Amino acid sequence: YPSQISIGIAGRFGDRYRLEADLVGQDFSNSFVFAKTKDAPGDPQLGTFNRFSFGLERLALIGEDARNTTFWERAGLRFGLAYAQLPYHPSAGVTVNEMSASIGLGFPFASGSMIDLSTELGIRTPSDANIAPKDLFIKIGATVTVSEKWFVPLKRQDDE
């Protein structure tokens, strides 16, 4: 299986802002499927995968930091941009590039839990439009993070 090389850098500004950039590279052109009986040859339609992404985030306020603040002051916000050369080659010498932008919104609760909503909008463009058409895509995500406070048993006066 092809190895992946990743490098990233992130910085935090103030108490709430984070900036990060990532570079990922992987080569599928020399990969093959291993089976007990014989090795299957690699897929000639696979090549290198390269991705660069950039993100800016305002972290959500949780716990004591969130006291006496409005709902929108507590919310976390994210914005990101990404560019990738996909490993799929629909024809010899044809590459497919992908550009996308993403936004996210995190809603924290007093218990430390959070609901996070995200959307990514992008386009995949082949280097030869006669081989494959442009592809617009949208990804929508939702994540629920449950705080450890939910799993701590309540202490009752009868327990003492």
Describe the structure.
With 160 residues, the protein is mainly β. 2% of the residues lie in helices and 52% in strands. It is built from 1 helix and 9 strands; from the N terminus they run βββββαββββ. The strands form 2 sheets. Strands 1-2-5-6-7-8-9 form a 7-stranded antiparallel sheet. Strands 3-4 form a two-stranded antiparallel ribbon. A hairpin with a 3-residue loop joins strand 1 and strand 2.
Task: Provide tags for this entry.
single chain; 160 residues; mainly beta; 7-stranded antiparallel sheet; two-stranded antiparallel ribbon; 1 helix; elongated
Strand-helix topology:
Blueprint: E1 4-13, E2 17-27, E3 33-34, E4 39-40, E5 48-58, H1 71-74, E6 76-86, E7 96-108, E8 114-126, E9 135-145
Antiparallel strand pairs: 1-2, 2-5, 3-4, 5-6, 6-7, 7-8, 8-9
Q: Biggest sheet: strands, sense, closure?
A: 7 strands, antiparallel
Radius of gyration over C-alpha positions, nearest whole angstrom: 22 Å
Q: Pairing-aware structural class of the strands and helices?
A: mainly beta
Q: Give the helix level as a range of percent.
A: under 10%
Please give a quick description of this structure:
With 160 residues, the protein is mainly beta. The chain has one helix spanning 71-74, and strands spanning 4-13, 17-27, 33-34, 39-40, 48-58, 76-86, 96-108, 114-126, 135-145. Helix content is 2%, strand content 52%.
